Amino acid sequence: MKAEYCQSEEFENRFRKLQELRKLGVEPYPPSFHPTHDSGELQSAWGTAKIGGSHEAEAGASPFVSAAGRLVLFRPMGKNAFAQLQDKNGRIQLMFNKDATQVEGYVPSAEDHPSPLKFIEKMVDLGDIIGVEGYLFHTLKGELTIYVKRVVILTKSLLPLPDKHAGLSDKEMRYRKRWLDLISSQSVVKVFKDRSRIMKLIRTHLDELGFLEVETPILNSIYGGAEARPFTTMLHALKQEMFLRISPEIALKKLLVGGLDRVFEIGKVFRNEGIDRTHNPEFTIMEVYAAYWDYNDMMHLTETLFENIALALHGSTDVAFFSPETQSTIILDFKTPWKKMTMKESIKVYGGIDCDALSDDEMRALLRTEGMEDKELKGATRGLLIAHLFETKVEHHLIQPHHIIDHPIETTPLCRPHRDPECYRQGLIERFESFILGGEMCNAYSELTDPELQRQLLEQQAERRAGGDEEASPYDEDFVEALCQGMPPAGGLGIGIDRLVMLFTNCQSIRDVLFFPWMKPKHISENVLES
């Protein structure tokens, strides 16, 4: 059964042309073409150079070049036709000439076959990929143009491009058919080029600090390293249930035990949880671990990394970001050092609440006024109540870069208890999260290296999981055994790459920085997803 688009008039017309091309001896899908330059290179080398006009190009007295890309505009003008060729770096103007331009494989004749120019006008459509060879010149208006001597049809497009004026305005269509989005919008292309550049900047920064990039398994027989519900699958060869990793943390710490002092990984993780403006079930994370560091060292690493990215991409530590919440542009200052506050201090400063002066029941009462349900509050420990107050009273105030340090121990089972005796007594850990624009940008801590304490905390996690907490991790004896072998003091850091890219490319949704974000199947209703 043919797809709906195959039944459209446009498809049928283009398919008919495809068949005609083959009858005329023109191969519409040749194996290769080797352009000498792309549009950006042409503009850089000859955009302002004195290379002459069309007469010099016609005589072959100007630079000879070849280029390839999509035909996105075609305008016949008598014995000439002007066109625009779009490639990865932009557009270059073409000029076809009735007498000088030839088409690869096409032989004109007086009777049945028109001139090459008429052939192009009749058989080549907008969206077709072509290769051209010719000589450069500047038009009277100064536009760099290729005087085309030879045209090679490289790909006959069977579907039209989006409307050249309206573009691809349907957001859902943009995400579902990203290839059309990339064809239609150079600004979208720039976002993904910037994403690639950011990844290179991160790798360079860590390489200069002596970190080794590694790869660890995505399929795990046991999961851990974060609190999240996993995706499950089946390894049929062993008839064993497997999990897509929710974090590479455990594997990376085992490498520290093995003597690799500084390691990092950039890779995909999978969390079977909510989908919204900043969450996608599959996302890219970077985790960094350094032996003999602590969370203070990781704070410095975070600040300098963000500062370097800002300088490289924007030439300044001041970066403009449009806030959808306030409908205004905010100037974010990434210059080091960043503001640093303990979680309790931030609740006091931004929420006006002194946690140490409140009982557990008083904190529960406050959280009820914020809409939290009794079933969430009933079994919550004091540490979790403080964390909930922070989420409701503080997070949205943290617009400029902030480090929030010294969290309650209940928030993670993998972090070192605080070295300060008073903080230790209060059940605090050496953890920080960095916040920008009211959202978490990274999570880091001084790592827990005591195997017995780690065993106890993982056992507590396993008990929570057995009690129905789907986000709690199962007990991992293999990890505890590795710690028993001895892991050096260490600092660890995790950064969501997609959110970082959103920040530096001024994108409002995580879908804007993923080539192919998750989209619900069209036949599934919103009610099904919510259930």
SSE arrangement:
Elements: H1 9-23, H2 39-46, H3 54-58, E1 64-77, E2 80-87, E3 90-97, E4 102-103, H4 116-123, E5 129-138, E6 144-155, H5 171-176, H6 178-184, H7 186-208, E7 212-213, E8 219-220, E9 232-235, E10 240-244, H8 249-257, E11 262-270, E12 282-291, H9 295-314, E13 318-323, E14 328-333, E15 339-342, H10 343-351, H11 360-369, H12 374-377, H13 382-393, E16 402-408, H14 421-425, E17 428-436, E18 439-446, H15 451-466, H16 477-485, E19 490-496, H17 497-505, H18 526-530
Parallel strand pairs: 3-6, 4-6, 7-11, 15-16
Antiparallel strand pairs: 1-2, 1-5, 2-3, 5-6, 8-10, 9-10, 11-12, 12-19, 13-14, 16-17, 17-18, 18-19
Helix pairs in contact: 7-9, 7-17, 8-16, 10-13, 11-13, 15-16
